[in-house]
Amino acid sequence: IEVAKILSKKYSNITFHVVGGFNEETIDVSDIKESIKFYGMLSIHEFDDFFIDKDIILSPNIPNILANGAFDGFPTGSCVEAGLRKTAIFCTDMLNLNGDKIKENEEIVIVPHNALEISEIISYYYNNPEALKQICENGQKKLLDIYSYESQIKPRIEILKREISQPFELTIEDKLKIKRLARVNKKFCLDNIRVFLIQKYGQVYMDYCPDPIKKVYKGIKRIIRNRYIR
């Protein structure tokens, strides 16, 4: 909203669009009420029509606001949906998650969490529409590659197949852990009313889970996390 207030004073033909559970009462927008539109909640099926004439999605999100460690992700789901529809992504990257995966100023624009600086960056692209068009088109191509079946699903399937195909011998200690785990599971099923104990049972699962299984799980989780964005 701060960015919108700055830009609306400079340009009369920029319109700001807000999707989600927000309205004109969330933040004071009386100064720019003629330049801002609220759409409420939209389904994913409505995005094709919504983004057809949008140039930029601005996402200056930062971590550790809702709670310590809370983060919306990079890029956010809304940014991905917009980018796939040739809307240029202008977003922050406070945790430096991008690296060189999505090329800055060619496929995405990384902005600071500062309204004045963001406004200056948008002003540059306002005056250089061809550069903005290239980011829209290049960004879509990159996202189609990053979130393709070949990049996301196929590697996961290959990892699972490879791990499942590798036999391993359980030690006597591991077999005893599995028996204990079965008893814990049975007790949990019989005692499911006491749902507040779910964390306790989760810890027991971790304690009794055989080490080879833990190793496979942790390995897959690590590989998938590293592959989230190539």
Task: Characterise this structure.
- This protein has helices at 2-10, 47-50, 77-83, 115-126, 129-146, 149-165, 172-190, 198-208, 211-227; strands spanning 16-19, 36-40, 56-59, 88-91, 109-110.
- Mean pLDDT is 86; it is low at 195-199.
- Helix 1 crosses helix 4 and helix 7 packs antiparallel against helix 8.
- The chain is built from nine helices and five strands; from the N terminus they run H-E-E-H-E-H-E-E-H-H-H-H-H-H.
- It has 230 residues and is mainly α.
- The chain is elongated and about 75 Å long.
- It has a three-stranded parallel sheet with strand order 3-4-5. The chain has a two-stranded parallel ribbon with strand order 1-2.
- 14% of the residues are buried.
Key structural traits:
5 strands, two-stranded parallel sheet, three-stranded parallel sheet, about 230 residues, about 10% strand, elongated, mainly alpha
Quantity of strands, as a count: 5
* pLDDT averaged residue by residue: 86
| Quaternary state of the chains | single chain
Largest sheet: 3 strands, parallel
Helix percent reads 40-55%
Find the structural class using helix and strand composition. Answer: mainly alpha
Radius of gyration: 24 Å
Classify the beta-strand content into a percent band: 5-15%
Order of helices and strands: HEEHEHEEHHHHHH
Counted by DSSP, the helix tally is 9
Described by the principal axes of the CA atoms, the overall outline is elongated
Distance between the termini: 33 Å
- Biggest sheet strand line-up: 3-4-5
